[in-house]
Amino acid sequence: MTRACNFSAGPAALPEEVLVQAQSELLDWGHTGASVMELSHRGRDFMALAAESEQDLRDLMGIPDHYRVLFLQGGATQHFAQIPMNFAAPDQVADYIVTGAWGEKAVREAMPYVQARIAATSVDKHFTRIPPRDAWSLDPRARYVHYTPNETIHGVEFQEVPEVGDVPLIADMSSDILSRPLDVSKFGMIYAGAQKNIGASGLVVVIVRDDLLERCPDSIARIFSYAEHAAGHSLFNTPNTFGWYLASLVFKWLKREGGLAVIGERNRAKANRLYGVIDGSGFYSNPVEPSARSWMNVPFFLPRVELEAPFLAEAGAAGLIGLKGHRALGGMRASLYNAVTMESVETLVDFMTDFARRHG
Amino acid sequence: MTRACNFSAGPAALPEEVLVQAQSELLDWGHTGASVMELSHRGRDFMALAAESEQDLRDLMGIPDHYRVLFLQGGATQHFAQIPMNFAAPDQVADYIVTGAWGEKAVREAMPYVQARIAATSVDKHFTRIPPRDAWSLDPRARYVHYTPNETIHGVEFQEVPEVGDVPLIADMSSDILSRPLDVSKFGMIYAGAQKNIGASGLVVVIVRDDLLERCPDSIARIFSYAEHAAGHSLFNTPNTFGWYLASLVFKWLKREGGLAVIGERNRAKANRLYGVIDGSGFYSNPVEPSARSWMNVPFFLPRVELEAPFLAEAGAAGLIGLKGHRALGGMRASLYNAVTMESVETLVDFMTDFARRHG
């Protein structure tokens, strides 16, 4: 078995020791005589896993008691629609801060269910910066303010949580949850698709403040109601049990590694190393304003488009995978999620330096 | 490692050779250097898996070309709501045939989006039979007729596809898809949560006729539109890639076993064996009318409630798990999905016979 250095943007690299554990108990989990995915979500064993995983996430993120933690399905994209279905009405207003392609999608999916206002956007700057806070035009009547702290495609990340007053702040943290310490109490709701820093695709973690749940209307199907899922402890219907189990292993791994302060410093160092090589190369380029550069996703371009195919082919031959940029942007992208080691980053920068020397 | 005889109603037993294969390639799938769950759903390797798995399902079920096959999320429960969102309007009528708890839930989740008529129900018979077809009061204006061919909790199964004229027939086949041959062309749509006969929870397979997709309105979020998912080949957003992969392994296993004709005969024999022991015991009982008995889920009762705890404890000690009945019905239940072997059924009936002898 040879494991590649995996820079995929998502689904993405998982910690190897998580995969080794999952592998070792795939046919017999916890002496049950069955795989975790063969057991009832309402059985004693899975219920214990569910409770412990929630507590581990609460410990890691310091989630206050007046927030519920939900393990749902549908991907972040479904929640783009569920958020206004739960917290607003079609004739009410919600503010959206758009700093990349995912913010744009969040607006598009929300539109049938709320008057989605774009209170700030950097589309005019090709999503290479964060619009300055004093230029945002927030509406005080907004039911919530939605933003995307890290834009996976454009590689743009907020370095601080924006101040939005009394309006609940909702964040799609699919690509930066658990990447560094965070003050959860500043948010009305945080949600994240699991396939970057939590585990595998098909699971969404939602962290939502109690008072927001009081808004969930009876006029939607119960399966779409966050209040119903909270009341049912995410067992209103059958959850993605294997995805939840993998998340539970990742949470344990994060605790063993020392928690989010340690992970955050590691992520900062990985990102600094790669941006440093890009900026110092005279060959590669990253168009994002330095103060808005993502620690998680580093898009970069080669000086000539015709070098892209040989770059990817040679990288693949060297065991470096997942480097092709998103089709919306082109170029390359290296995603540096928690499970990507500094050793993988060193292997990448060595390859990049050598490639630049040969083609520069 | 000791594998139990697993009669769980879902999530449920998987074929052991599927789990062994998944285990062997969990850290390095197809020489990619990564787990299947660490790779982009839009990469060459996963796209090939997606295409091949769809073809395998088409081969197994004989799905005609004018049907789309989708691999989605949300569980069947979410699709209870999505079906009327896609195929009807709140002021239109849809007919529901209710033969158990899942049919009731389907109605409840649909109610915000359609005038859900109960065209037939066996609730007055405590869901122990199928209402005779000539007693159904179908509405010719109905946008569709929905039914649940197999009711997992009550153990009631249609032995034939009902005739409903020109109105599209929609079936929640979560617990009996792939359990025997089926004429797909009689349906407008078939859907199934994967956690019984397809694979693991967190995946839903939808088989939908092209003409129904033309009904999907622009007024709902795109993430809820079956037409969008069909246009995007189930990659409109990130699918549950590991769940899809497991399904692909199960489809290959079914083909190796000889397909649905072979599987159907095997399931018939397993069910006959267990019902025979129950009926012949003078100890156990199953309340369902013989013509409506499920091949997949066999609820049964002990003569005295106080025997239930020792039955479950002794069964567990003998390596028989997942036998506790649903909390809505009580008693016991043995689910006999495709992955449950005749050997497991023989172990169960031996145990049951011995238990009856000692407690009768």
TrEMBL record, chains A, B:
Binds 1 pyridoxal phosphate per subunit. It catalyses: O-phospho-L-serine + 2-oxoglutarate = 3-phosphooxypyruvate + L-glutamate; 4-(phosphooxy)-L-threonine + 2-oxoglutarate = (R)-3-hydroxy-2-oxo-4-phosphooxybutanoate + L-glutamate. Pyridoxal 5'-phosphate binds at A76, T77, W102, T152, D172, Q195, N237, T238. Pathway: Cofactor biosynthesis; pyridoxine 5'-phosphate biosynthesis; pyridoxine 5'-phosphate from D-erythrose 4-phosphate: step 3/5; Amino-acid biosynthesis; L-serine biosynthesis; L-serine from 3-phospho-D-glycerate: step 2/3. GO terms for cellular component: cytoplasm. Its EC number is 2.6.1.52. The keyword Translocase does not apply. Signal peptide: none annotated. SUPFAM superfamilies: PLP-dependent transferases. It is found in: Cytoplasm. It comes from the Bacteria. L-glutamate binds at R42. GO terms for biological process: L-serine biosynthetic process; pyridoxine biosynthetic process. Residues 6-348 form the Aminotransferase class V domain. Pfam families: Aminotran_5. Its main location: cytoplasm. Its cofactor is pyridoxal 5'-phosphate. Keywords: Amino-acid biosynthesis, Aminotransferase, Cytoplasm, Pyridoxal phosphate, Pyridoxine biosynthesis, Serine biosynthesis, Transferase. Homodimer. Belongs to the class-V pyridoxal-phosphate-dependent aminotransferase family. SerC subfamily. This is Phosphoserine aminotransferase. It comes from Dokdonella immobilis.
